[in-house]
């Protein structure tokens, strides 16, 4: 079973707000009675609630998740979504990341509805008109103030690039043609690979990190981005998410290395202990 991170988290926030207003006692009782999960627990090995039958089609699992949303989350998040529907979206950030199912953007950025204008594709590549159109819209219409490119560990697109799948012997498939957009990242990785600031990166990690740096460079050449950056109204950020350790890294553009987020805070708490 999967529940959308945004709706679960926002449901919790809405619940808290309603409790403050004194109107949530009934809703909270209903919520707690019908659902003992706290945010994220439905994702812990997907063990929350009644598991679907072993022979259930994946679509049944999806539909079951939608039903659970309608029953439990929608009543809580509806006021906030109604506000957004009325006022329209005004996100301050464009977030570009991979289509990988393990990357849950709202979870790793602690964001909710209306926060992130998001583009996802295989390998978080920006060398494409569809991404260029989204960037143009985000920068010129939505007036976002930052663009983040986020790569991740174990990226299948980067593995395929390393394996040369973008240069097949025969006629390339759509995936092969798409992966050609990553050639510049592969070249960059061989010539001047991006690194972690705190540990050694293996070959795949070097490509994942270099790909983020390369996509930022490409973004900076986009006319709309270049113009807004010249005015000082737009910032580009590079991020990498290590799935196994649930650790985000940010590109330090001064040193060109990726450093773990909260590293300073962790060092301070360890020093104080
Ligand atoms: Zn990926």
Tags for this model:
273 residues, 7-stranded mixed beta sheet, 49% helix
In brief, what are we looking at here?
By secondary structure, the protein is α/β, with parallel strands linked by helices. The protein is built from eleven helices and seven strands. The protein has helices spanning 5-20, 24-34, 58-87, 105-109, 129-141, 156-162, 174-179, 183-191, 203-220, 223-230, 263-272, and strands spanning 93-98, 116-121, 146-152, 195-196, 235-242, 247-252, 257-260.
Largest sheet, if any?
7 strands, mixed
Q: Please tally the helical runs, counting DSSP H or I stretches of 4 or more residues.
A: 11
Oligomer: single chain
What general outline do the C-alpha atoms trace? globular
**How many individual β-strands?**
7
Give your account of this protein's structure.
- This protein is α/β, with parallel strands linked by helices.
- Helices cover 49% and strands 14% of the residues.
- The chain contains eleven helices and seven strands.
- The protein has helices spanning 5-20, 24-34, 58-87, 105-109, 129-141, 156-162, 174-179, 183-191, 203-220, 223-230, 263-272; strands spanning 93-98, 116-121, 146-152, 195-196, 235-242, 247-252, 257-260.
- It has a seven-stranded mixed beta sheet with strand order 2-1-3-5-6-7-4.
- β1 (93-98), α4 and β2 form a beta-alpha-beta unit.
- The two termini are 40 Å apart.
- The relative contact order is 0.10.
- Residues 98, 100, 123, 152, 155-157 line the site of zinc ion (ZN).
């Amino acid at each position: 079973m999967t529940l959308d991170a945004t709706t679960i988290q926002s449901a919790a926030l809405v619940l808290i707000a309603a409790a403050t207003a004194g109107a949530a006692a009934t809703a909270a009782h209903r919520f707690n009675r019908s659902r003992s999960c706290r945010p994220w627990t439905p994702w812990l090995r997907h063990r929350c609630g009644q598991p679907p039958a072993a022979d259930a089609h994946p679509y049944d699992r999806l539909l079951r998740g939608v039903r659970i949303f309608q029953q439990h989350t929608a009543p809580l998040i509806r006021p906030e979504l109604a506000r957004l529907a009325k006022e329209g979206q005004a996100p301050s950030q464009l977030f570009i990341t991979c289509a990988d199912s393990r990357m849950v953007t709202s979870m790793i950025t602690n964001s909710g509805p209306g926060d992130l204008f998001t583009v996802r594709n295989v390998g978080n590549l920006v060398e494409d008109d569809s991404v260029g159109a989204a960037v143009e819209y985000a920068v010129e219409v939505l007036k976002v103030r930052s663009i983040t490119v986020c790569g991740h560990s174990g990226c299948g697109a980067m593995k395929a690039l390393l394996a040369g799948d973008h240069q097949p012997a025969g006629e390339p498939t759509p995936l092969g043609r798409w992966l050609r957009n990553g050639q510049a990242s592969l070249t960059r990785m061989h010539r001047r690979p991006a690194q972690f600031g705190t540990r050694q990166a293996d070959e795949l990690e070097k490509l994942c990190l270099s790909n983020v740096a390369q996509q930022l460079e490409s973004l900076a050449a986009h006319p709309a981005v270049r113009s807004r950056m010249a005015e000082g109204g737009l910032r580009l950020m590079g991020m990498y998410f290590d799935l196994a350790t649930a650790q985000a890294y940010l590109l330090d553009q001064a040193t060109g290395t990726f450093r773990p987020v909260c590293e300073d805070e962790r060092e301070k708490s360890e020093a104080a202990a």
